[in-house]
Specification:
Elements: H1 3-22, H2 25-35, H3 49-55, H4 63-80, H5 88-106, H6 134-149, H7 157-192, E1 199-204, E2 211-217, E3 221-228, E4 239-242, H8 254-267, E5 271-276, E6 279-289, E7 300-306, H9 325-336
Length: 338
């Protein structure tokens, strides 16, 4: 999830666990602990983009990292706030819940996290919530703001931290139900329309959980389309994108090969290769298209320029470049159903 979500959810959890003894400092500790796994962004200053993609949400999002860090962080909290009467074990429980909460909710995005690193480089992803979903964040944000300004002895604080924790939990359940519904519909439609594939996934489109992006992996290419939870017609308009692996023969240097292998690993095989003029482009289909619901032939949000001077960060490259009044209206029309 985005940083704001981790901060406000961490603050609400901190208030719930340690607010009575730490006061509002519990919210600060909670927000900090819930954000720690994302400190891996520091590695981006030294790593190439393709290597950083594999490091981000890697070891700092692993179970081992949480197990090793929690006792150390708890020891610091215990030493700094010994006068508050919170024992060391309570600190471990408090901060452990915060860090593991971060690992858990990040798994609901489509980026994937390395729960088992360094023993396994497998990435886990539920593809259930968009990385920044206003409906997930808004209530814990409001709850956190209220808790900041409300007196520590107020009897209403309990209501607000409960609301800040339970509301996103309920929203996750709704999102999970929507995903399962869309998955069953997509599989049924692909069988009916004879869309041959060996695997597929669905993931929500930006800022909502009602319109879903569907990608099916065939042997030589991938099919992509959109499905709304309100669609009444039992159909999905799929667009086919060939993988074009043969174009990779133009990237012959050892450095290019390493980069391409890293990108393939990161994309989990959901990729296509294109050529824009004289530049090879690697597209990761897991992150969707730029306004693809408006134009099914639009560029993909993740595209990396191979052997190009501008090959920096690619995950968010142009993600919202095509957004305007018409494409936003088109998004709402598509959400309403076919």
């Amino acid at each position: 999830m985005d940083s704001l979500t981790h901060i406000v959810l961490g603050a609400c959890i901190g208030e719930a666990i340690a607010g009575k003894k730490l006061g509002k400092k519990a919210m600060i500790w909670g927000a900090f602990a819930n954000s720690i796994p994302d400190f891996d962004f520091i590695a981006s200053f030294w790593l190439t983009m393709d290597k950083n993609l594999l490091v981000h949400r890697g070891f700092t999002h692993s179970i081992l990292f949480a197990v090793l860090l929690t006792p150390l962080l708890a020891w610091l909290g215990y030493r700094w706030h010994r006068s508050k009467g919170i024992d060391y074990l309570h600190w471990i429980v408090f901060l452990g819940i915060e860090i593991f909460c971060h690992l858990f909710i990040d798994t609901f995005n489509n980026y994937g996290i390395g729960w088992l690193e360094p023993f396994s480089d497998s990435r886990f992803s539920f593809n259930t919530v968009y990385v920044a979903d206003p409906l997930y964040t808004i209530i814990p944000l409001i709850a956190t703001l209220v808790l900041i300004f409300k007196r520590t002895d107020s009897t209403r604080r309990k209501f607000w931290w409960k609301l800040g924790i339970l509301a996103p939990a309920v929203y996750l359940l709704i999102c999970s139900f929507n995903k399962v519904s869309v998955m069953f519909a997509a599989e049924r439609i692909m069988q009916k329309e004879h869309v041959e594939h060996k695997r597929f996934f669905v993931t929500p489109t930006p800022f909502n959980n009602l319109l879903w992006y569907v990608v099916a992996d065939a042997d030589s290419g991938l099919y992509s389309g959109y499905r709304s939870v309100f669609d009444s017609k039992d159909t999905i308009h799929f667009t086919y994108f060939p993988k074009n692996d043969k174009l990779l023969s133009e990237a012959s240097s050892g450095e290019d090969t390493t980069t391409i292998n890293n990108l393939k690993k990161f994309s989990q095989g959901f990729y296509t290769i294109q050529k824009w003029q004289d530049t090879l482009v690697f597209n990761d289909l897991r992150f969707g298209q730029i306004v693809g619901w408006h134009d099914p032939n639009e560029k993909f949000a993740f595209h990396y320029f191979i052997r190009h001077r501008d090959n920096g960060m690619a995950v968010q490259r142009g993600r919202f470049a095509g957004w305007n009044k018409e494409t936003i209206r088109s998004l709402f029309r598509r959400i309403k159903g076919n």
